[in-house]
Structures are given as structure tokens and as C-alpha cells.
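thread: overnight batch results

M.L. [08:02]
morning all. the overnight job finished for the chain we discussed friday. pasting input first so we're all looking at the same thing
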Amino acid sequence: MSALPVYRWRLAPDGYATRRQLRALGLRPGGQEVAAQLERPRRRRGPLVAYLYRVDLAKPVRAMTPARRAALEKANRARRMCPSCQRDAGYVIPTSLGACVPCVYPDPRGSEGSTL
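M.L. [08:03]
and the structure it wrote out:
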């Protein structure tokens, strides 16, 4: 097994891309191994590493099927449901709160005293 080539930040040659860059091009790694590493210097801790893939070996992103779209909508709907009041919050509930904002931070004045 040979060591991966390591490039400094912004100095990788053409033909390599990170997962996000591939996705922006409508591509995915497609099972290929990591081709190189990109190191971004950091002052306090060690370097930040990003993996690079070869663009010429990348495959197109798979199309979204109706079943996959329905499953994704169902999962996102579940993430919006408040476990306390059982209502759709209209946003994804943060795991740090565990419930919608009105349930975690109730208005001390009550709903009658609020005037905007």
C-alpha cells in the first residue's frame, strides 16, 4: 500500500475534488478509493484534512426516486414534530432542546398578555 499524496490548502492539481465539490458538479465518488489528501494549516491543533477523489473516475449522482423522496419527507416531518405538544414546529427541532421553543421556553405572561 502506497502513501497518499498530500497537498497544501488551495494547491491541489486539477482533476481532484472533495465530496462537496463533486456534489456541486453533479457527481459522487462512486466507490473509488481516496486519491489524495488536502491539508489546511491550523494554529493550535493539528492540520485539518480533506480527502480528494479523482473527477475522471466519479460517477453521476443517482436520481431521486419517488420512494426515496417519500422516505425523506417522512423523516424530515418526524424531525419537526415536538414530542411534548405533538405539533409540527415548522422547523427541525434542535436536539439540544429536545422540544419546540415554546415548550422549552414558555411565555411567563401567558398567551393572553402578549401584545405586539
